[in-house]
Amino acid sequence: MASLEDFRKNLEKVKAAVPQTEEKILKKTAEQYLGLVINRTPIGEYPNGSGRVGGVLARGWTSKTEEEARSGTGDGKEKIPRYVAETPVEHRGNQATMKLVNPVHYGPYVDFGHRIMRKGRCVGMYNGLHITEKAAKSLDMQKIADDYSEQMFKDVFGK
Question: Based on the structure, what is the number of domains in the chain?
Answer without folding.
Answer: 1
